[in-house]
Amino acid sequence: MRVLVLGSGGREHALARALHRDPAVTALHCAPGNPGTAEIADNHQLDPTNRTAVVELAARLRVSLVVIGPEAVLVAGVGDALRKAGIPCFGPDRAAARIEASKAFAKEIMAAAGVPTADSRVCESSGEVEEALDAFGPPYVVKDDGLAAGKGVVVTESRDEALRHADACDRVVVEEYLDGPEVSLFALCDGQHAVPLLPAQDFKRAYDGDEGPNTGGMGAYTPLPWAPPDLVDEVMATVVQPTVDELRRRETPYVGVLYAGLALTSQGVRVVEFNARFGDPETQVVLDRLATPVATLLQACAIGGLDPSLRLEWLPGAAVTVVVAAEGYPAAPAKGDEITGLDEAAAVEGAYVLHAGTALGGEGRPVANGGRVLNVVGTGPDLAAARTAAYEAVSRIGLRGSHHRTDIALKAVSMP
Fold first, then answer.
1. Is pLDDT of 238 > 80?
2. Which tens digit of pLDDT belongs to each residue from 111-153?
3. Where are the beta strands (DSSP E) in 251-368?
4. Most buried of 71, 110, 285, 301, CB within 10 angstroms?
């Protein structure tokens, strides 16, 4: 199987790594990729949102599967263009990708499908926002209706902050605050059927103790020792399958991975948000644990042949990933600083490094080229061992002004 992965971040490096390990993959390409993917695949420099360029590249490379990573590529209609050209694509078309591109559309789908979620109001004026904030009270939850790279949500006790965020957006969804821990669950979908992956938990706030601004994600881990044993079955029955069925009923079949961001509230499971692609950095730990070859799974989704009774195989143990972020992230990340210690980090037993926001600088040395620069993954027989490996590897990396959270998976490890 010849595979092309679209995107350039840590998620795409994780996807490429999983595909590289699959013996069915005979040729692996990334566009544009990054210095990490270049070590296991052929990188091609193009804009992955350019439909014509992507179709031409996929045809020239004679790929049998294109895997789309970023949401912007989906919303640009790249999946539509590939399917029109007869090229199998893992990733929903533009219409189905609205489940992420528009929070209001997602709420509409959930209401029609009977999916449990927070009460909400769609607001297009400051007056409507004021009324919604009054109705729901603090903590205030205000979401940009459009794509915002994982940073369009403000959860705050400050009414002024909530109003400022709403004023900066064209349209927002204001909703009630959901209590309880959050869980990410990915489901592979072929338009009709869905198969779940392992649940994971990520950490959105920039600093330890869930302090600071929201980010694209500062770390993640799996498995979740505290999660109810029937959680996955419940979510598939009450959230994922009804959503897939509703989109199919609307003649916009969902093909790709459906990301359900969940809150385990005192009233039961509630959907916080849907994403139309693999979450980042949860993908890094979930794919690390996947023992079932991934290429055949993704191709089955793309061509409509996913077996709904399939039970995936998972490696024993645990995985923890820690994001090394550039100075100034998430507000104004510094770029161009040299990264050192990558070989030393990779030498830590049970650990490896995925490139997320990197480039090659002078003399071919890696430099920071984004906000979230590296994903350091630690693995082991349990969460404690995986966490130790991840942080030992992080300690060997040098990047001026960088920062990372020191409490990824700490609570889970500390649980009796």
1. yes
2. 999 999 988 888 889 898 988 898 989 999 998 887 665 557 8
3. 255-265, 268-275, 318-325, 351-355, 358-360, 366-368
4. 285
Please tell me whether the peptide bond between 48 and the residue prior to it is cis, using omega within 30 degrees of 0. no
Residue with tokens 């079949």: 253
Mean local confidence (pLDDT), 58-81: 97
Q: Per the structure block, which two tokens stand in for 136?
A: 């729901």
Give the integer Cα–Cα distance in Å for 405 and 211. 10
Percentage of residues in the chain having pLDDT higher than 90: 84
User: Which long-range CB contacts under 8 A does 16-22 form with residues at least 24 apart?
Assistant: 16/40, 16/41, 17/287, 17/354, 18/287, 18/290, 18/294, 19/67, 19/294, 19/295, 22/293, 22/294, 22/295, 22/296
Report the SS3 class of residue 71.
Answer: helix
Residue 34 has pLDDT above 70, yes or no: yes
354: CB partners within 8 A, 6+ apart: 10, 13, 14, 17, 36, 284, 321, 374, 375, 376, 377
Residue 77 phi, psi dihedral angles, 5° rounding: 85, 20
Q: Residue 352: helix, strand or coil by DSSP? A: strand
Biggest alpha carbon–alpha carbon distance for the chain:
58
Token pair for 230: 């029937």
Question: What are the structure tokens assigned to 407, written together?
Answer: 């409490």
Q: What is the DSSP letter of 170?
A: S
Specify burial of residue 39 (Cβ count, 10 A radius: 0-12, 13-18, 19+): middle
Between CA 255 and CA 192 the distance in angstroms is 8
Task: Tell me the C-alpha distance between 134 and 242, whole Å.
Answer: 32
How far, in Å, CA of 10 to CA of 46, rounded?
18
Angle between helices 159-167 and 126-136 (to 10 degrees): 150
User: Dihedral (C-alpha) 8, 10, 12, 17: value to the nearest 10 degrees?
Assistant: 130
